[in-house]
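EI: anyone free to look at a 337-residue chain?
SC: sure, send it
EI:
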Amino acid sequence: MAKHNGQVAVSNRGTLCLSALALALLVFLLSGLATAADMSRFQRLVVSLGQAEPAIRGRFARIALLEMAEIHLAEAGLARNQTAQDAEPERLLGWARAVEAYAGQLLRLHEDVEQGAPVLLLPGLVGDTAILVGERSIIISHPRRDQQQALEQAILHVFCGRENCLQLLAARVELAPEPILESPSSRPPSWSFTRSGPVCEQSGLQIQFPAAAGPGAGNLAQYRSLCRQLFAELQLLVAALRSQLRQGVVPEWGALAISATPHRPEHSIRLNSAGDSLLLAVPLLHSTPGLLGHILAWLRPLAESGVAPGLVLQARDLGWFGSPVTPERDSIPSTNP
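SC: here you go
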């Protein structure tokens, strides 16, 4: 699908007319044009599933078809809700009906796979990945082109939650033992108090908050809430990054970017130009401009080796409170409020 006149328009990329034999031959010919380093984790998974048991390919196809059907139905519902404000409501309703019909096709293919129809996955080495069910084929695509990576990550998230993707995509990389930060039962951030204000810290990352009596300062309850939220999000991010590294993903660290995803509470975190991304709920990281860049020197070594250098950030520099200040070094013994 593609946008047209400000709305998402139905594309003609749906059903392919090639036979299974011709499509398989096409994949074989194209496979020599891309190396593993050129492919995203999603593409490499699709390639690896070509050698997997048919039942596993079927489970992947059902997840992808259901995810696409839900997205298209959500887009159609959004269009119907906009008809009251649209100058041509009938045109918008016609588009919504077409999208709902396409979602119906996806659901029927989903049912066919459940009934045991054979599945062939066609890696998107020069375009988007396709699913061939019997002699019918559907392209795995999001109706909003800029959300294609979010769709692929959503499919990966569900599939890898049920299947052993580490085995399917095992990479020859050596990672240190899991850092404490990655464990859901990890210790809470520790606190110390300086003349400039309280400091929370975990795994070498310190956040200096302004003194409660200072201009533009918050209170200790606000500080504690921010720290808990920040380190909870970082815990998720580090765990996800380490999982990606084990599966051969190579992040372009300086280009990491977070964006919102339509119809989902999670955010899309772009990892590299190959199309790898994460789908995580990180509202504080997303809503704090520049925060990801500020912590990069701490985040990368923690994800790669489990050990990070010390890093001190000012809450005011992040835009959380007041204006930037220079902290004093004198501190009062550590405690946990």
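EI: The mean pLDDT is 77.
SC: 👍
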